[in-house]
UniProtKB/TrEMBL annotation:
One of its GO terms (molecular function) is L-isoleucine-2-oxoglutarate transaminase activity. Its cofactor is pyridoxal 5'-phosphate. The modification N6-(pyridoxal phosphate)lysine is found at residue 191. Transmembrane segments: none annotated. This is Branched-chain-amino-acid aminotransferase.
Length: 348
């Protein structure tokens, strides 16, 4: 499908201080947008970023048919924009769409839309090491209708937001005993807006206790570890890595999938299985819990220092050498270094 392009006559680029970008608040000049009407996606276009007129009865506002993706474009050493595994995000968006009763978006058009937008916005990728253009593809129901059924019209949009170097400090997690993120048969595997809405209050409570993010436990027993607020989780116990199984309640993280490949490439054993929080507490007590880290697009790999669980404080480690080495390898691949897995897609 041909993508129509309308350029802005009023670029904000010159006003951006790349050394001081407020996270998530600065948006590039353009957006990619496509309409779903009469049973098909139509009119894909890149146009100046603008407000979108929304009917007060737009179904996404009432019934929550809204899904999204998160990914980044980085610059190679030759300053060419690259995308990291974009077809993985396209496939995950469609898995989310299916769960939420929304139409699939053509995967080639998803990637072509990203490329069309990033090729126009490449000067927005901050010229500072460790920076990227964060990309947010999303889809929502815009049909004005009061009634419980799948909508018949949707918008698919991609916006971009420059992100400065993300120096992650070690994080402290709060293992949540009361609230849950996802139950078997629910929407945990979908990147659905409602999952995040339900996580906001528990996250505020965790922060008020001095923790950075929630560590979600399973819905039935509150015993098994699922994932972190916006990250999947890995533990190194006695030399080997373990990460919770994708059991239907856990987001299929693209960083998670890539970290498993990098760890195995480096010769480590990685096992996907059920992991109880009690097991992690015991490993810490026995001195076999060597590392823990979270993985996600926004932060890359974040060192987990400590986990609070009721009255227990589970200390993890002050260093995370393997996690850091994996992060370095991923960053090298993303900035045009050797790419043994063939993950990077050039934009131009
Ligand atoms: C709930 C949740 N888990 C895990 C992740 C990590 O996924 P990815 O590595 O694809 O960014 C994210 C971020 O997208 C998330 O929101």
């Amino acid at each position: 499908m041909k993508i129509e392009v309308t350029k802005t006559t009023n670029s904000k680029l010159a006003s951006i201080d790349f050394d001081n970008i407020p996270l998530g608040r600065t948006f590039t000049d353009h957006m990619f947008i496509c309409d779903y009407e009469d049973g098909k996606w139509q009119n894909p276009r890149v146009e100046p970023l603008a407000m979108i007129p929304t009917h007060p009865a737009a179904m996404a506002l009432h019934y929550g048919q809204a899904i999204f993706e998160g990914m980044k474009s980085t610059l190679s050493r030759k300053r060419e924009p690259l995308l990291f595994r974009p077809y993985e995000n396209a496939a995950r968006l469609n898995a989310s769409a299916e769960r939420m009763g929304m139409p699939a978006f053509p995967e080639d058009l998803f990637v072509d839309g990203l490329k069309a937008l990033v090729s126009m916005e490449q000067d927005w990728i901050p010229p500072v090491d460790g920076s990227a253009l964060y990309l947010r593809p999303f889809m929502y129901a815009d049909e004005p209708f009061i009634g419980m059924r799948a909508a018949t019209s949707y918008k698919f949009i991609i916006i971009g937001s420059p992100a400065g170097p993300f120096f992650t400090k070690p994080v402290k997690l709060w293992a949540e005993k009361h609230y849950i993120r996802a139950a078997s048969g629910g929407t945990g595997e979908a990147k659905a807006a409602g999952n995040y809405a339900a996580a906001i209050r528990p996250t505020e409570i965790a922060k008020s206790k001095g923790y950075d993010q929630v560590l979600w436990l399973d819905a039935q027993e509150h015993a098994y570890i699922q994932e972190v607020g916006t990250m999947n989780i890995f533990f190194k116990v006695d030399g080997n890595f373990i990460t919770p199984t994708l059991d239907g309640s856990v987001l299929h993280g693209i960083t998670r999938k890539s970290v498993i490949d990098v760890l195995r490439h480096k010769g480590y054993t990685v096992t996907e299985r059920k992991i109880s929080i009690q097991e992690i507490k015991e490993a810490a007590a026995q001195g076999t819990l060597e590392e823990a880290f979270g993985t996600g697009t926004a932060v890359g790999i974040a060192h987990i220092q400590e986990i609070g669980w009721g009255d227990d404080v589970i200390p993890v480690s002050t260093e995370f050498p393997v996690g850091k080495a994996v992060n370095d390898m991923l960053n090298d691949i993303k900035t045009g270094g050797e790419d043994p897995f063939n993950w990077m897609a050039p934009v131009l």
